[in-house]
Amino acid sequence: MLEIRNLHARIAEDGTEIIRGLNLTVRAGEVAAIMGPNGSGKSTLSYILSGRDDYEVTEGEILLNGESILELNPAERASKGIFLAFQYPVEIPGVATMQFLKVAMNEQRKARGEEELTTPDFIRRVKEAAAKLQIDQAMLRRPLNVGFSGGEKKRAEILQMALLEPSLCVLDETDSGLDIDALKIVADGVNALKSPDRATIVITHYQRLLDYIIPDTVHVLYKGQIIRSGDKALAHELEANGYADIIGQAA
Amino acid sequence: MPAVQETVDQVRRIDIDQYKYGFETVIEVDKAPKGLSEDIIRFISAKKQEPEWMLEWRLDAYRRWLTMEEPTWARVEYPKIDFNDLYYYAAPKGTSGPTSIEDVDPELLRVYEKLGIPLREQEILAGVKTSRVAVDAVFDSVSVVTTFKKELQKAGVIFMSISEAIREHPDLIKQYLGSVVSTTDNYYATLNAAVFTDGSFVFVPKGVRCPMELSTYFRINEKNTGQFERTLIIAEEGAYVSYLEGCTAPQRDENQLHAAVVELVALDDAEIKYSTVQNWYPGDAQGKGGIYNFVTKRGDCRGHRSKISWTQVETGSAITWKYPSCILRGDESRGEFYSIAVSNGHQQIDSGTKMIHLGKNTSSRIISKGISAGKSNNTYRGQVSIHRRAENARNFTNCDSLLIGDRCGAHTVPYIDVKNASAQIEHEATTSKISEDQKFYAMQRGIPEEEAIALIVNGFVKDVIQELPMEFAVEAQKLIGISLEGSVG
Ligand SMILES: Nc1ncnc2c1ncn2[C@@H]1O[C@H](COP(=O)(O)OP(=O)(O)OP(=O)(O)O)[C@@H](O)[C@H]1O
Ligand SMILES: [Mg+2]
């Protein structure tokens, strides 16, 4: 599904290299967890995957289903199935959540040459998905993310993910700011989307989320490289011992 | 590429040649000779079969105008206009004034069809559920048709071209014309008084709620022709009317002048809602051509508890110079100004409002949203003036500017003048750039860049859009999207 080969990327504005020779493969149906200390480049990687132009790829390749996506803009990548649940979801004042969802869903359909959704069909889908995530209708009428609590924002991200049905889901610290109940709801939402032709990358600092969304592989990102990969046992090891040992071994 | 740099580059590739109404209609016209003189004014007045007093009124204005200087205080730049190099009257042949739909040249009907403006009442009626809107269609210097006149008449509402009203309702015209914007108010208003050609006249008698939306569509077609619109709306005691004007013009290399005067009068407990969707040709990507839109619009809340609200969506014109204002004369009267001004390419906008509080317990509200892209300049210029006797006056002003790219300018120039200590005035202003975070977020969801910008901008202007009559809100949103097309690569 996703193959990242020797990726080097830097901040466009000042040339600082953040991703330094990163290799990662995520197969269809797989849940991959990425962990790593603050500032190691996890969010940056998610931005680069989704095509944010603050970063420049200087070397390497990103292949989605065997095709390079480096030349595609963020909207084109989204239509190809890449979805990023933001660590910090952005407020869009004046644009009702409903309206935003409708535009996004229809734009993606347009890009794939599909019919636009009819209003009743759209409303039905949103209602169903929102109910599963315990998002109430009033929230859908409010401008997207404006004044949403931390937990509401994260739930709204998963709502969008559920409706857009991406093939590669990237969740950047979706667990931060969630209370225990909300964590469970969100994890259920993510698990419900699990399918053999969908891959998920979960970026997190805590085992807690991985108790609910059980990863097939766990990767440690440090200073822009994957320095260690393993299975879910690796996450437990990190939870117990921190990063010091692994970093020490890699150095 | 850094985000900001990218926006700049995209804006550099700007191309605003996307004006959808730029077609020209070849139609036989009846024109006055070029230039401005007392003879030309006599020509216009005769064409419109005006009474002698009207001609005198015009000639007086003309003589005053000759002694006046063009104003220079607005933040707009343009070469000096040669007023003798313009035509002041152009009418499609055979239309010396509005007639019934059957008599309108089919070529003209096609023009309005192309513009999406329904003129055939049956067709409007046939359109199930779409709410009915009465239309006065002004083509260059004349009104070609006014729809739903009969039905409005039944309700007691007079809706016709001002030329007809001068002939048919001279008493009302004498009483109200020039009573809000005096003939000597300012350079362009005085010029307008001398040479105005057509526009709409609305009279809603005491206690009547106008049964439908009224609207006027202005179209400038002829080359080198000035359009001097004159509109007068009167709402008697307790009356209500909602009126909308729309405007378009062909794409031409040379600039065209639209110098309008609009006067509104609201008596006790009356309410007038005046909306504008201004989409004159803005000129091409190099700043060539486009309409000079020099407009004087003023409402007089003459009666107690009267209310006038101006809502404008300004997307067109090369230069806009326009300050729809309210004189809050009656006690407890209220003035509102809601504005969206979008400038792209080389457009220049200097627009705002004046709220003149004279009566007691008067209130006013100003919400202005300016959006600048390309190399455009967008100035909000507003005045709130509380006079000595205006006890307990209140004003709330909010001016927000949004910049797209960094070669455009946004300026806010508020004048506040308070002569009564009981006044309460609030002023908020913000200037922001379109956020790369918002744009990226929307694009990550699959929304292409231009749509993402249109969506964010429409969110930014939402407070004003919701003031528009429902029928036009969607249209206005689309228009904003269209006028920002090409603000990215
Ligand atoms: N646009 C930018 N401008 C300047 N510095 C940046 C930019 N983007 C990322 N960085 C820097 O790159 C490094 C990696 O940041 P990133 O946000 O990817 O870390 P992270 O692994 O997600 O951390 P956290 O666990 O705290 O979320 C940090 O030092 C950050 O400050
Ligand atoms: Mg991060």
From TrEMBL, chain A:
<dbReference type="GO" id="GO:0005524">
    <property type="term" value="F:ATP binding"/>
</dbReference>
<dbReference type="GO" id="GO:0016887">
    <property type="term" value="F:ATP hydrolysis activity"/>
</dbReference>
<comment type="similarity">
    <text>Belongs to the ABC transporter superfamily. Ycf16 family.</text>
</comment>
<protein>
    <submittedName>
        <fullName>Fe-S cluster assembly ATPase SufC</fullName>
    </submittedName>
</protein>
<dbReference type="InterPro" id="IPR003439">
    <property type="entry name" value="ABC_transporter-like_ATP-bd"/>
</dbReference>
<dbReference type="InterPro" id="IPR027417">
    <property type="entry name" value="P-loop_NTPase"/>
</dbReference>
<keyword id="KW-0547">Nucleotide-binding</keyword>
<dbReference type="InterPro" id="IPR003593">
    <property type="entry name" value="AAA+_ATPase"/>
</dbReference>
<keyword id="KW-0067">ATP-binding</keyword>
<dbReference type="InterPro" id="IPR017871">
    <property type="entry name" value="ABC_transporter-like_CS"/>
</dbReference>
<dbReference type="Pfam" id="PF00005">
    <property type="entry name" value="ABC_tran"/>
</dbReference>
<feature type="domain" description="ABC transporter">
    <location>
        <begin position="2"/>
        <end position="248"/>
    </location>
</feature>
<dbReference type="InterPro" id="IPR010230">
    <property type="entry name" value="FeS-cluster_ATPase_SufC"/>
</dbReference>
From TrEMBL, chain B:
<feature type="domain" description="SUF system FeS cluster assembly SufBD core">
    <location>
        <begin position="218"/>
        <end position="460"/>
    </location>
</feature>
<protein>
    <submittedName>
        <fullName>Fe-S cluster assembly protein SufB</fullName>
    </submittedName>
</protein>
<dbReference type="InterPro" id="IPR037284">
    <property type="entry name" value="SUF_FeS_clus_asmbl_SufBD_sf"/>
</dbReference>
<dbReference type="GO" id="GO:0016226">
    <property type="term" value="P:iron-sulfur cluster assembly"/>
</dbReference>
<comment type="similarity">
    <text>Belongs to the iron-sulfur cluster assembly SufBD family.</text>
</comment>
<dbReference type="InterPro" id="IPR055346">
    <property type="entry name" value="Fe-S_cluster_assembly_SufBD"/>
</dbReference>
<dbReference type="Pfam" id="PF19295">
    <property type="entry name" value="SufBD_N"/>
</dbReference>
<feature type="domain" description="SUF system FeS cluster assembly SufBD N-terminal">
    <location>
        <begin position="150"/>
        <end position="210"/>
    </location>
</feature>
<dbReference type="InterPro" id="IPR000825">
    <property type="entry name" value="SUF_FeS_clus_asmbl_SufBD_core"/>
</dbReference>
<dbReference type="InterPro" id="IPR045595">
    <property type="entry name" value="SufBD_N"/>
</dbReference>
<dbReference type="Pfam" id="PF01458">
    <property type="entry name" value="SUFBD_core"/>
</dbReference>
<dbReference type="InterPro" id="IPR010231">
    <property type="entry name" value="SUF_FeS_clus_asmbl_SufB"/>
</dbReference>
